[in-house]
Specification:
The chain is α/β, with parallel strands linked by helices and about 250 residues long. The protein contains nine helices and eight strands.
């Protein structure tokens, strides 16, 4: 992976393939390597030029202050696009990654840079069920398996991992970083495919129906009996076909 110094961090990213640029933003606690569990990345790289960053504080990217918001992460991605001299991209974002896309798509400085985007389980705000689950996240409650999984993704030591768990808990009380109004969503110009499972314990379906109504021309793809990880299960083949058809030139 390559790195660039931006906004006080070293942002790690990988470029693969050739074709129209496709920005791929992973979920919280994840890293760019997670995409192999959803897409055939080698095949995808024959159709698109893949831009695969690790968000600040995740994977190989640093975050010395430990401060992490969706808005700040979106500004990092804007800087990466500037560095790569990419004026227009297609994009797919998983949960946290999709929240970053919502920031990019609603900000006046970046909304025209997204041609099309697929957001997966990415809410406009954090509802009560999500806040309750986030509030339960503590470093002390993590199991050996949790530590093993996180250490496999995040390479800058255990303090990097602790900072992510602290951030997740902090999301439970934040009311400013993720609080998109219908008017803000209505300013989105990118073609948008909204994906969710109808049994997501974090984010009720109504949030995504409201997004669908607010974002001009949006499409809504609901996975029956699907949770927050619905696209990784039996629905994966249909989701991949649908997403790629939506993102094709």
């Amino acid at each position: 992976m390559e790195t660039i110094a931006i906004n006080g961090i070293d942002l790690a990213y990988e470029l693969r393939g050739d074709g129209p640029p496709l920005l791929m933003l992973h979920g919280f606690f994840g890293s760019s390597g997670d995409w192999v569990h959803l897409f055939d990345v080698e095949a995808l790289a024959r159709r698109f030029r893949l831009i695969l960053p690790d968000a600040r504080g995740h994977g190989r990217s640093t975050n010395p202050t430990g401060e992490l918001t969706h808005r700040r992460a979106a500004d990092d991605i804007r800087g990466l696009l500037d560095h790569l001299r990419l004026d227009r991209v297609r994009a797919v974002g998983l949960s946290f990654g999709g929240n970053i896309l919502l920031h990019l798509a609603t900000a006046a400085a970046t909304r025209d840079r997204l041609q099309a985007m697929v957001t997966i389980g990415s809410p406009s705000h954090f509802p009560a069920p999500a806040r309750a689950i986030m509030a339960s996240v503590t470093v002390e409650s993590r199991t050996d398996d949790d530590w093993r999984e996180m250490r496999a993704r995040h390479v800058h030591g255990d303090e990097q991992i602790r900072a992510l768990w602290r951030t997740a808990r902090g999301f439970s009380t934040d009311t400013e970083d993720l609080a998109f109004t219908p008017a803000q969503l209505g300013s989105i110009r990118a073609r948008t495919l909204i994906v969710t499972g109808d049994r997501d314990p974090l984010y009720p379906l109504e949030i995504f129906v409201d997004q669908y109504r607010a974002i001009p021309g949006a499409a809504l793809y609901v996975i029956p009996e699907g949770g927050h990880d619905a696209v990784f299960r039996a629905a994966r083949p249909d989701f991949v076909r649908t997403a790629l058809a939506f993102l094709e030139p």
